[in-house]
Amino acid sequence: MVQTDFLVIGSGIAGLTYAVKMAQRFPDRRIMVVTKAAADETNTKYAQGGVAGVTDFENDSFEKHINDTLIAGDGLCNPKVVEIVVKEGVDRIRELIKWGAEFDKDADGDYALGREGGHSEFRILHHKDVTGREMERALLAQVKLLPNIEVMKHWFVIEIITQHHLGYLVTKSTPDVECYGVYALDTNTKKVETILAGVTLLATGGNGQVYRTTTNPSVATGDGVAMVYRAKGRVENMEFIQFHPTALYEPAVGGQAFLITEAVRGDGGILRNKNGEAFMERYDKRKDLAPRDIVARAIDSEMKITGTEHVWLDCRHMDQEKFLHHFPNIHEKCLSIGIDVSQQMIPVAPAAHYSCGGIKTDEWGRTSINHLYAAGECASTGLHGANRLASNSLLEAMVFGHRAYEHAASTIPQQISPNRIPDWDTAGTTDPKEMILITQSLKELQLLMSDYVGIVRTDVRLERAMKRLDLLWAETEQLYQSTTVSPQLGELRNMITVAYLIVKGAQFRKESRGLHFNTDYPDKSVLLQNIVL
Protein backbone atom coordinates (compact mmCIF):
# COMPACT_ATOMS: atom_id res chain seq x y z
CA MET A 1 0.00 0.00 0.00
CA VAL A 2 1.37 3.37 -1.13
CA GLN A 3 -0.17 6.70 -0.15
CA THR A 4 0.35 10.10 -1.73
CA ASP A 5 -1.40 13.45 -1.65
CA PHE A 6 -1.47 13.99 -5.40
CA LEU A 7 -1.18 11.20 -7.95
CA VAL A 8 -0.33 11.85 -11.61
CA ILE A 9 -0.62 9.08 -14.19
CA GLY A 10 1.60 10.00 -17.14
CA SER A 11 4.73 12.09 -17.54
CA GLY A 12 4.01 14.18 -20.63
CA ILE A 13 3.55 17.94 -20.70
CA ALA A 14 0.08 17.90 -19.09
CA GLY A 15 1.07 15.70 -16.15
CA LEU A 16 4.39 17.42 -15.51
CA THR A 17 2.88 20.92 -15.70
CA TYR A 18 0.39 19.89 -13.02
CA ALA A 19 3.00 18.13 -10.88
CA VAL A 20 5.50 21.01 -10.93
CA LYS A 21 2.89 23.58 -9.97
CA MET A 22 1.45 21.42 -7.20
CA ALA A 23 4.89 20.71 -5.78
CA GLN A 24 5.83 24.37 -5.80
CA ARG A 25 2.62 25.38 -4.05
CA PHE A 26 2.66 22.58 -1.46
CA PRO A 27 6.31 21.81 -0.61
CA ASP A 28 5.19 19.68 2.34
CA ARG A 29 2.86 17.52 0.24
CA ARG A 30 3.83 14.40 -1.68
CA ILE A 31 3.31 14.32 -5.45
CA MET A 32 3.75 10.99 -7.21
CA VAL A 33 4.11 10.71 -10.99
CA VAL A 34 3.59 7.20 -12.33
CA THR A 35 4.74 6.34 -15.85
CA LYS A 36 4.87 2.97 -17.56
CA ALA A 37 8.14 3.60 -19.40
CA ALA A 38 11.01 6.08 -19.11
CA ALA A 39 9.98 9.50 -17.84
CA ASP A 40 10.39 11.16 -21.25
CA GLU A 41 8.79 8.40 -23.36
CA THR A 42 5.55 10.24 -24.09
CA ASN A 43 3.60 11.65 -27.03
CA THR A 44 4.95 15.06 -26.00
CA LYS A 45 8.47 13.96 -26.86
CA TYR A 46 7.49 13.14 -30.45
CA ALA A 47 5.65 16.41 -31.18
CA GLN A 48 7.70 17.99 -33.96
CA GLY A 49 5.94 21.07 -35.33
CA GLY A 50 5.54 23.34 -32.34
CA VAL A 51 3.08 25.04 -30.03
CA ALA A 52 0.52 27.56 -31.27
CA GLY A 53 0.18 30.84 -29.41
CA VAL A 54 -0.47 34.50 -30.20
CA THR A 55 2.77 36.35 -29.45
CA ASP A 56 2.92 38.73 -32.43
CA PHE A 57 0.07 41.08 -31.62
CA GLU A 58 0.93 43.42 -34.50
CA ASN A 59 -0.04 40.84 -37.13
CA ASP A 60 -2.06 38.32 -35.11
CA SER A 61 -4.78 38.33 -32.47
CA PHE A 62 -6.63 36.07 -30.06
CA GLU A 63 -9.73 36.45 -32.22
CA LYS A 64 -7.92 35.07 -35.28
CA HIS A 65 -6.56 32.06 -33.36
CA ILE A 66 -10.00 31.40 -31.86
CA ASN A 67 -11.63 31.60 -35.28
CA ASP A 68 -9.07 29.24 -36.85
CA THR A 69 -9.69 26.73 -34.06
CA LEU A 70 -13.47 26.92 -34.46
CA ILE A 71 -13.26 26.47 -38.23
CA ALA A 72 -11.01 23.42 -37.88
CA GLY A 73 -13.32 21.93 -35.23
CA ASP A 74 -16.18 21.90 -37.76
CA GLY A 75 -18.95 23.05 -35.43
CA LEU A 76 -18.26 20.88 -32.38
CA CYS A 77 -15.80 23.02 -30.40
CA ASN A 78 -16.90 24.52 -27.09
CA PRO A 79 -16.40 28.26 -27.79
CA LYS A 80 -15.83 29.05 -24.13
CA VAL A 81 -13.05 26.47 -23.85
CA VAL A 82 -11.48 27.66 -27.10
CA GLU A 83 -11.30 31.20 -25.71
CA ILE A 84 -9.83 29.96 -22.43
CA VAL A 85 -7.07 27.95 -24.11
CA VAL A 86 -6.12 30.59 -26.67
CA LYS A 87 -5.99 33.44 -24.15
CA GLU A 88 -4.45 31.57 -21.21
CA GLY A 89 -2.07 29.61 -23.41
CA VAL A 90 0.23 32.59 -23.95
CA ASP A 91 0.90 32.79 -20.20
CA ARG A 92 1.65 29.07 -20.10
CA ILE A 93 4.13 29.42 -22.98
CA ARG A 94 5.87 32.31 -21.20
CA GLU A 95 5.96 30.24 -18.03
CA LEU A 96 7.63 27.35 -19.83
CA ILE A 97 10.19 29.72 -21.32
CA LYS A 98 10.91 30.96 -17.81
CA TRP A 99 11.49 27.35 -16.80
CA GLY A 100 14.14 27.02 -19.51
CA ALA A 101 12.41 25.93 -22.73
CA GLU A 102 14.14 27.38 -25.78
CA PHE A 103 12.29 28.29 -28.98
CA ASP A 104 13.98 29.28 -32.23
CA LYS A 105 14.62 32.96 -32.89
CA ASP A 106 15.47 34.93 -36.03
CA ALA A 107 18.51 37.13 -36.62
CA ASP A 108 16.84 40.04 -34.80
CA GLY A 109 16.24 37.99 -31.67
CA ASP A 110 12.49 37.68 -32.23
CA TYR A 111 10.78 34.30 -32.11
CA ALA A 112 10.82 32.64 -35.53
CA LEU A 113 7.13 31.89 -35.93
CA GLY A 114 5.93 29.17 -38.27
CA ARG A 115 2.60 28.59 -39.97
CA GLU A 116 0.76 25.30 -40.33
CA GLY A 117 -2.43 23.99 -41.91
CA GLY A 118 -5.60 25.80 -40.83
CA HIS A 119 -3.75 28.78 -39.33
CA SER A 120 -4.39 32.21 -40.84
CA GLU A 121 -1.17 33.70 -39.42
CA PHE A 122 2.39 32.76 -38.47
CA ARG A 123 2.05 31.86 -34.77
CA ILE A 124 3.82 28.52 -34.20
CA LEU A 125 6.76 28.61 -31.79
CA HIS A 126 9.18 25.77 -32.40
CA HIS A 127 12.53 24.31 -31.45
CA LYS A 128 13.80 23.11 -34.83
CA ASP A 129 11.71 19.97 -35.53
CA VAL A 130 11.85 18.56 -31.99
CA THR A 131 9.68 21.07 -30.12
CA GLY A 132 7.97 18.51 -27.90
CA ARG A 133 11.27 17.01 -26.83
CA GLU A 134 12.57 20.44 -25.82
CA MET A 135 9.43 21.20 -23.80
CA GLU A 136 9.59 17.81 -22.10
CA ARG A 137 13.28 18.40 -21.27
CA ALA A 138 12.53 21.74 -19.62
CA LEU A 139 9.74 20.27 -17.51
CA LEU A 140 11.76 17.26 -16.38
CA ALA A 141 14.55 19.65 -15.35
CA GLN A 142 12.03 21.44 -13.12
CA VAL A 143 10.85 18.14 -11.67
CA LYS A 144 14.41 17.29 -10.59
CA LEU A 145 14.57 20.55 -8.61
CA LEU A 146 11.52 19.62 -6.52
CA PRO A 147 12.24 16.99 -3.85
CA ASN A 148 8.55 16.37 -3.10
CA ILE A 149 7.92 14.95 -6.60
CA GLU A 150 8.58 11.23 -6.91
CA VAL A 151 8.67 9.77 -10.42
CA MET A 152 7.78 6.07 -10.47
CA LYS A 153 9.11 4.68 -13.75
CA HIS A 154 8.05 1.38 -15.31
CA TRP A 155 4.80 1.09 -13.39
CA PHE A 156 1.70 0.02 -15.33
CA VAL A 157 -1.60 1.31 -13.97
CA ILE A 158 -4.33 -1.33 -14.24
CA GLU A 159 -7.53 0.14 -12.76
CA ILE A 160 -8.99 3.19 -11.06
CA ILE A 161 -10.19 2.41 -7.54
CA THR A 162 -13.80 3.47 -6.83
CA GLN A 163 -16.73 2.36 -4.64
CA HIS A 164 -16.93 -0.66 -6.93
CA HIS A 165 -13.91 -2.08 -5.13
CA LEU A 166 -15.66 -1.59 -1.78
CA GLY A 167 -18.45 -3.91 -2.87
CA TYR A 168 -20.96 -1.34 -4.15
CA LEU A 169 -22.75 -1.53 -7.49
CA VAL A 170 -21.47 1.31 -9.67
CA THR A 171 -23.20 2.14 -12.96
CA LYS A 172 -23.24 5.07 -15.40
CA SER A 173 -26.15 6.53 -13.44
CA THR A 174 -24.55 6.14 -9.98
CA PRO A 175 -24.25 9.61 -8.42
CA ASP A 176 -20.97 10.75 -6.85
CA VAL A 177 -18.65 7.99 -8.02
CA GLU A 178 -15.31 8.68 -6.31
CA CYS A 179 -11.71 7.90 -7.22
CA TYR A 180 -9.52 6.75 -4.32
CA GLY A 181 -6.39 5.96 -6.33
CA VAL A 182 -5.27 3.12 -8.58
CA TYR A 183 -3.99 -0.42 -8.74
CA ALA A 184 -0.60 -0.45 -10.47
CA LEU A 185 1.85 -3.15 -11.50
CA ASP A 186 5.49 -2.61 -10.59
CA THR A 187 7.08 -4.22 -13.64
CA ASN A 188 10.36 -4.73 -11.80
CA THR A 189 8.91 -6.74 -8.90
CA LYS A 190 5.90 -8.10 -10.90
CA LYS A 191 3.66 -7.15 -7.96
CA VAL A 192 0.43 -5.17 -8.12
CA GLU A 193 0.41 -2.39 -5.53
CA THR A 194 -2.42 -0.22 -4.24
CA ILE A 195 -1.71 3.51 -4.61
CA LEU A 196 -4.10 5.74 -2.67
CA ALA A 197 -4.38 9.47 -3.31
CA GLY A 198 -6.56 12.38 -2.33
CA VAL A 199 -6.56 13.62 -5.93
CA THR A 200 -5.65 11.77 -9.14
CA LEU A 201 -4.84 13.28 -12.54
CA LEU A 202 -4.94 11.15 -15.67
CA ALA A 203 -2.47 12.42 -18.26
CA THR A 204 -2.05 9.15 -20.12
CA GLY A 205 -1.80 10.48 -23.68
CA GLY A 206 -3.28 9.10 -26.87
CA ASN A 207 -4.25 5.79 -28.44
CA GLY A 208 -2.54 5.69 -31.84
CA GLN A 209 -1.31 2.12 -31.30
CA VAL A 210 -4.87 0.95 -31.95
CA TYR A 211 -3.95 1.37 -35.62
CA ARG A 212 -1.36 -0.52 -37.67
CA THR A 213 0.57 2.63 -38.60
CA THR A 214 0.80 5.60 -36.26
CA THR A 215 3.09 8.50 -35.43
CA ASN A 216 2.62 7.67 -31.74
CA PRO A 217 5.16 5.76 -29.63
CA SER A 218 4.42 2.27 -28.35
CA VAL A 219 3.13 3.63 -25.01
CA ALA A 220 0.10 5.31 -26.67
CA THR A 221 -2.45 2.59 -25.94
CA GLY A 222 -5.40 4.59 -24.60
CA ASP A 223 -5.01 3.38 -21.01
CA GLY A 224 -6.65 6.37 -19.31
CA VAL A 225 -9.73 6.39 -21.55
CA ALA A 226 -10.24 2.65 -21.13
CA MET A 227 -9.88 2.79 -17.34
CA VAL A 228 -12.38 5.64 -17.01
CA TYR A 229 -14.89 3.85 -19.22
CA ARG A 230 -14.59 0.68 -17.13
CA ALA A 231 -15.00 2.78 -13.98
CA LYS A 232 -18.31 4.10 -15.43
CA GLY A 233 -16.95 7.56 -16.19
CA ARG A 234 -17.99 9.59 -19.23
CA VAL A 235 -16.11 9.38 -22.52
CA GLU A 236 -17.05 11.35 -25.65
CA ASN A 237 -16.34 11.91 -29.35
CA MET A 238 -14.01 8.95 -29.74
CA GLU A 239 -14.87 8.63 -33.45
CA PHE A 240 -12.73 11.69 -34.21
CA ILE A 241 -9.29 10.16 -34.83
CA GLN A 242 -6.91 12.52 -36.59
CA PHE A 243 -4.68 10.98 -39.22
CA HIS A 244 -1.59 13.05 -39.84
CA PRO A 245 -1.41 13.52 -43.60
CA THR A 246 2.35 13.17 -43.93
CA ALA A 247 4.05 10.31 -42.17
CA LEU A 248 7.18 9.03 -43.90
CA TYR A 249 6.25 6.01 -46.01
CA GLU A 250 8.59 3.09 -45.40
CA PRO A 251 7.08 -0.11 -46.84
CA ALA A 252 9.04 -2.50 -44.62
CA VAL A 253 8.34 -0.60 -41.40
CA GLY A 254 5.21 -1.06 -39.28
CA GLY A 255 4.14 0.38 -35.94
CA GLN A 256 5.46 3.86 -35.21
CA ALA A 257 6.00 5.88 -38.37
CA PHE A 258 8.38 8.82 -38.63
CA LEU A 259 6.45 12.07 -38.72
CA ILE A 260 7.07 14.69 -41.41
CA THR A 261 5.78 17.73 -39.57
CA GLU A 262 3.11 19.95 -41.08
CA ALA A 263 5.56 22.81 -40.69
CA VAL A 264 7.33 21.52 -43.82
CA ARG A 265 4.22 22.41 -45.83
CA GLY A 266 3.98 25.64 -43.85
CA ASP A 267 7.44 26.52 -45.19
CA GLY A 268 6.44 25.72 -48.77
CA GLY A 269 6.42 21.93 -49.24
CA ILE A 270 4.02 20.78 -51.98
CA LEU A 271 2.09 17.50 -52.10
CA ARG A 272 2.21 15.73 -55.45
CA ASN A 273 0.62 12.51 -56.71
CA LYS A 274 2.12 9.64 -58.68
CA ASN A 275 2.02 11.74 -61.86
CA GLY A 276 3.81 14.68 -60.25
CA GLU A 277 0.66 16.82 -60.10
CA ALA A 278 0.11 19.25 -57.21
CA PHE A 279 -3.34 17.93 -56.38
CA MET A 280 -4.44 19.84 -53.25
CA GLU A 281 -5.90 22.74 -55.24
CA ARG A 282 -8.60 20.32 -56.45
CA TYR A 283 -9.74 19.69 -52.87
CA ASP A 284 -9.47 23.01 -51.04
CA LYS A 285 -8.65 26.61 -51.87
CA ARG A 286 -6.09 26.61 -49.05
CA LYS A 287 -4.22 23.90 -50.97
CA ASP A 288 -1.42 22.29 -48.93
CA LEU A 289 -2.29 24.39 -45.86
CA ALA A 290 -5.85 23.11 -45.50
CA PRO A 291 -6.75 21.52 -42.13
CA ARG A 292 -5.50 17.99 -41.54
CA ASP A 293 -8.81 16.20 -42.06
CA ILE A 294 -9.13 17.65 -45.55
CA VAL A 295 -5.51 16.97 -46.51
CA ALA A 296 -5.60 13.39 -45.19
CA ARG A 297 -8.79 12.59 -47.13
CA ALA A 298 -7.32 14.20 -50.25
CA ILE A 299 -4.20 12.04 -50.01
CA ASP A 300 -6.34 8.96 -49.36
CA SER A 301 -8.38 9.78 -52.47
CA GLU A 302 -5.28 10.30 -54.64
CA MET A 303 -3.78 7.02 -53.45
CA LYS A 304 -6.97 5.16 -54.35
CA ILE A 305 -7.29 6.89 -57.75
CA THR A 306 -3.68 6.15 -58.75
CA GLY A 307 -3.46 2.77 -57.01
CA THR A 308 -0.42 3.75 -54.96
CA GLU A 309 0.47 3.40 -51.29
CA HIS A 310 1.81 6.92 -50.89
CA VAL A 311 2.04 10.38 -52.43
CA TRP A 312 5.05 12.70 -52.59
CA LEU A 313 6.06 15.75 -50.59
CA ASP A 314 8.15 17.99 -52.81
CA CYS A 315 10.74 20.14 -51.00
CA ARG A 316 13.24 20.44 -53.85
CA HIS A 317 12.35 24.07 -54.56
CA MET A 318 12.75 25.17 -50.93
CA ASP A 319 15.73 27.03 -49.45
CA GLN A 320 17.86 24.01 -48.51
CA GLU A 321 19.96 25.87 -45.95
CA LYS A 322 16.77 26.97 -44.18
CA PHE A 323 15.35 23.43 -44.44
CA LEU A 324 18.44 21.95 -42.81
CA HIS A 325 18.32 24.54 -40.01
CA HIS A 326 14.59 24.15 -39.31
CA PHE A 327 14.22 20.40 -39.94
CA PRO A 328 17.57 18.75 -39.10
CA ASN A 329 16.03 15.49 -37.86
CA ILE A 330 13.79 15.11 -40.91
CA HIS A 331 16.78 15.81 -43.15
CA GLU A 332 18.89 13.24 -41.31
CA LYS A 333 16.12 10.62 -41.34
CA CYS A 334 15.55 11.03 -45.07
CA LEU A 335 19.27 10.73 -45.79
CA SER A 336 19.40 7.55 -43.71
CA ILE A 337 17.01 5.86 -46.17
CA GLY A 338 18.66 7.31 -49.26
CA ILE A 339 16.54 10.42 -49.85
CA ASP A 340 18.24 13.76 -50.50
CA VAL A 341 15.37 16.25 -50.09
CA SER A 342 17.15 18.77 -52.34
CA GLN A 343 17.03 16.26 -55.21
CA GLN A 344 14.24 13.80 -54.42
CA MET A 345 10.68 14.00 -53.19
CA ILE A 346 9.69 12.41 -49.85
CA PRO A 347 7.18 9.52 -49.95
CA VAL A 348 4.41 10.20 -47.43
CA ALA A 349 1.10 8.65 -46.39
CA PRO A 350 -1.43 9.35 -43.60
CA ALA A 351 -0.96 7.67 -40.21
CA ALA A 352 -3.05 7.67 -37.02
CA HIS A 353 -1.87 10.67 -35.05
CA TYR A 354 -4.23 12.18 -32.46
CA SER A 355 -7.46 11.44 -30.62
CA CYS A 356 -9.73 14.50 -30.47
CA GLY A 357 -12.20 12.75 -28.17
CA GLY A 358 -11.50 11.17 -24.82
CA ILE A 359 -12.42 11.46 -21.15
CA LYS A 360 -15.12 14.11 -20.87
CA THR A 361 -14.00 17.02 -18.67
CA ASP A 362 -15.25 20.44 -17.71
CA GLU A 363 -13.30 23.70 -18.02
CA TRP A 364 -11.23 22.78 -14.92
CA GLY A 365 -10.24 19.32 -16.10
CA ARG A 366 -12.74 17.57 -13.82
CA THR A 367 -14.09 14.23 -15.04
CA SER A 368 -17.48 12.75 -14.15
CA ILE A 369 -15.74 10.86 -11.30
CA ASN A 370 -15.07 12.89 -8.16
CA HIS A 371 -11.42 13.64 -7.27
CA LEU A 372 -10.34 12.48 -10.74
CA TYR A 373 -9.03 14.97 -13.31
CA ALA A 374 -7.83 14.48 -16.88
CA ALA A 375 -5.62 16.61 -19.11
CA GLY A 376 -3.77 16.29 -22.38
CA GLU A 377 -4.69 14.00 -25.24
CA CYS A 378 -6.61 11.54 -23.07
CA ALA A 379 -9.14 14.28 -22.24
CA SER A 380 -11.98 15.74 -24.28
CA THR A 381 -12.11 19.33 -23.10
CA GLY A 382 -14.16 20.78 -25.93
CA LEU A 383 -11.22 22.54 -27.58
CA HIS A 384 -10.77 20.38 -30.67
CA GLY A 385 -14.33 19.51 -31.64
CA ALA A 386 -14.39 17.32 -34.73
CA ASN A 387 -10.80 18.09 -35.78
CA ARG A 388 -7.76 19.49 -33.96
CA LEU A 389 -6.05 22.57 -35.33
CA ALA A 390 -2.32 21.93 -35.80
CA SER A 391 -0.09 22.67 -32.78
CA ASN A 392 -3.02 23.29 -30.43
CA SER A 393 -2.37 20.06 -28.50
CA LEU A 394 0.71 21.13 -26.52
CA LEU A 395 -1.06 24.41 -25.75
CA GLU A 396 -4.15 22.60 -24.45
CA ALA A 397 -2.05 20.24 -22.33
CA MET A 398 -0.31 23.11 -20.56
CA VAL A 399 -3.52 25.10 -20.03
CA PHE A 400 -5.48 22.18 -18.60
CA GLY A 401 -2.55 20.88 -16.58
CA HIS A 402 -2.56 24.35 -14.98
CA ARG A 403 -6.36 24.57 -14.60
CA ALA A 404 -6.58 21.09 -13.07
CA TYR A 405 -3.88 22.14 -10.60
CA GLU A 406 -5.75 25.34 -9.72
CA HIS A 407 -9.00 23.53 -9.00
CA ALA A 408 -7.48 20.51 -7.24
CA ALA A 409 -5.32 22.72 -5.03
CA SER A 410 -8.39 24.53 -3.76
CA THR A 411 -10.44 21.41 -3.00
CA ILE A 412 -8.17 18.79 -1.44
CA PRO A 413 -10.40 15.97 -0.09
CA GLN A 414 -9.80 13.65 2.82
CA GLN A 415 -8.23 10.37 1.80
CA ILE A 416 -10.12 7.13 2.29
CA SER A 417 -8.92 4.83 5.07
CA PRO A 418 -6.41 2.28 3.68
CA ASN A 419 -8.20 -0.44 5.66
CA ARG A 420 -11.26 -0.11 3.44
CA ILE A 421 -9.45 -0.83 0.16
CA PRO A 422 -8.85 -4.52 -0.66
CA ASP A 423 -5.54 -5.71 -2.07
CA TRP A 424 -5.37 -6.73 -5.70
CA ASP A 425 -6.86 -10.22 -6.07
CA THR A 426 -4.70 -12.71 -7.99
CA ALA A 427 -6.65 -15.81 -6.94
CA GLY A 428 -7.15 -18.32 -9.75
CA THR A 429 -4.60 -16.76 -12.12
CA THR A 430 -1.42 -18.31 -13.49
CA ASP A 431 1.53 -17.01 -15.49
CA PRO A 432 0.89 -17.06 -19.25
CA LYS A 433 2.27 -20.11 -21.03
CA GLU A 434 2.75 -18.28 -24.34
CA MET A 435 2.61 -14.68 -25.55
CA ILE A 436 1.20 -15.54 -28.99
CA LEU A 437 -2.36 -15.21 -27.66
CA ILE A 438 -1.65 -11.56 -26.86
CA THR A 439 0.57 -10.61 -29.81
CA GLN A 440 -1.71 -12.17 -32.43
CA SER A 441 -4.80 -10.50 -31.00
CA LEU A 442 -2.98 -7.17 -31.11
CA LYS A 443 -2.14 -7.65 -34.80
CA GLU A 444 -5.77 -8.53 -35.55
CA LEU A 445 -6.97 -5.45 -33.70
CA GLN A 446 -4.63 -3.06 -35.50
CA LEU A 447 -5.44 -4.60 -38.89
CA LEU A 448 -9.22 -4.39 -38.51
CA MET A 449 -9.08 -0.81 -37.22
CA SER A 450 -6.86 0.30 -40.11
CA ASP A 451 -8.94 -1.48 -42.75
CA TYR A 452 -12.44 -0.77 -41.44
CA VAL A 453 -12.22 2.35 -39.23
CA GLY A 454 -9.68 4.53 -41.01
CA ILE A 455 -9.90 7.87 -42.80
CA VAL A 456 -13.01 6.87 -44.81
CA ARG A 457 -15.69 4.66 -43.26
CA THR A 458 -18.92 2.90 -44.23
CA ASP A 459 -21.69 1.31 -42.20
CA VAL A 460 -20.73 -2.16 -43.46
CA ARG A 461 -17.08 -1.71 -42.47
CA LEU A 462 -18.06 -0.45 -39.01
CA GLU A 463 -20.42 -3.40 -38.51
CA ARG A 464 -17.69 -5.86 -39.48
CA ALA A 465 -15.25 -4.14 -37.15
CA MET A 466 -17.68 -4.37 -34.23
CA LYS A 467 -18.32 -8.08 -34.78
CA ARG A 468 -14.60 -8.84 -34.76
CA LEU A 469 -14.04 -6.63 -31.73
CA ASP A 470 -16.72 -8.55 -29.83
CA LEU A 471 -14.77 -11.77 -30.39
CA LEU A 472 -11.43 -10.20 -29.48
CA TRP A 473 -12.96 -8.72 -26.33
CA ALA A 474 -14.40 -12.10 -25.21
CA GLU A 475 -11.11 -13.92 -25.80
CA THR A 476 -9.05 -11.26 -24.05
CA GLU A 477 -11.35 -10.98 -21.03
CA GLN A 478 -11.16 -14.75 -20.57
CA LEU A 479 -7.37 -14.49 -20.71
CA TYR A 480 -7.41 -11.56 -18.28
CA GLN A 481 -9.49 -13.48 -15.74
CA SER A 482 -7.23 -16.53 -15.81
CA THR A 483 -3.77 -15.05 -16.35
CA THR A 484 -1.41 -13.06 -14.18
CA VAL A 485 -1.64 -9.48 -15.32
CA SER A 486 1.15 -8.05 -17.46
CA PRO A 487 1.62 -4.70 -19.26
CA GLN A 488 1.14 -6.44 -22.61
CA LEU A 489 -2.17 -7.98 -21.57
CA GLY A 490 -3.32 -4.78 -19.88
CA GLU A 491 -2.52 -2.70 -22.97
CA LEU A 492 -4.31 -5.13 -25.28
CA ARG A 493 -7.37 -5.01 -23.04
CA ASN A 494 -7.29 -1.21 -23.04
CA MET A 495 -6.83 -0.96 -26.80
CA ILE A 496 -9.79 -3.25 -27.46
CA THR A 497 -11.92 -1.03 -25.21
CA VAL A 498 -10.73 2.12 -27.00
CA ALA A 499 -11.35 0.53 -30.41
CA TYR A 500 -14.89 -0.35 -29.31
CA LEU A 501 -15.49 3.28 -28.27
CA ILE A 502 -14.17 4.57 -31.61
CA VAL A 503 -16.39 2.22 -33.58
CA LYS A 504 -19.46 2.79 -31.39
CA GLY A 505 -19.08 6.57 -31.69
CA ALA A 506 -18.66 6.23 -35.47
CA GLN A 507 -21.83 4.12 -35.69
CA PHE A 508 -23.84 6.66 -33.71
CA ARG A 509 -22.74 9.62 -35.85
CA LYS A 510 -25.02 9.56 -38.89
CA GLU A 511 -23.18 12.33 -40.72
CA SER A 512 -19.73 13.23 -42.02
CA ARG A 513 -18.06 15.86 -39.91
CA GLY A 514 -14.42 16.76 -39.35
CA LEU A 515 -12.31 13.64 -38.97
CA HIS A 516 -15.27 11.27 -39.27
CA PHE A 517 -16.21 10.65 -42.91
CA ASN A 518 -18.81 7.99 -43.69
CA THR A 519 -19.67 7.53 -47.36
CA ASP A 520 -23.19 6.41 -46.36
CA TYR A 521 -23.76 9.84 -44.77
CA PRO A 522 -21.62 12.25 -46.83
CA ASP A 523 -23.37 15.40 -45.58
CA LYS A 524 -23.55 17.16 -42.21
CA SER A 525 -26.75 16.85 -40.22
CA VAL A 526 -28.71 19.83 -38.99
CA LEU A 527 -28.15 18.87 -35.36
CA LEU A 528 -24.67 19.14 -33.86
CA GLN A 529 -24.03 17.02 -30.81
CA ASN A 530 -21.27 15.34 -28.85
CA ILE A 531 -21.57 11.57 -28.62
CA VAL A 532 -21.05 10.60 -24.99
CA LEU A 533 -20.52 6.93 -24.13
Rg from Cα? 22 Å
> Do you know the CATH architecture of the largest domain?
3-Layer(bba) Sandwich
How many strands, which pairing sense, and closed or not: the largest β-sheet?
7 strands, mixed
The helix content is 25-40%
Number of separate helices: 13
CATH superfamily of the largest domain: FAD/NAD(P)-binding domain
| Straight-line N-to-C gap | 32 Å
Return the CATH class of the largest domain.
Alpha Beta
**Gross geometry:** globular
Percentage of residues in strands: 15-25%
User: How many strand units?
Assistant: 20
Structural class: alpha/beta
Please, how many domains? Answer: 3
State the low-pLDDT regions, or none.
Answer: none
Kindly report the CATH topology of the largest domain.
FAD/NAD(P)-binding domain
Mean of pLDDT: 94
Key words describing this protein structure:
4-stranded antiparallel sheet, 13 helices, 7-stranded mixed sheet, alpha/beta, single chain, Flavocytochrome C3, Chain A, domain 1, Methane Monooxygenase Hydroxylase, Chain G, domain 1, 533 residues, 3 domains, globular, 34% helix, FAD/NAD(P)-binding domain
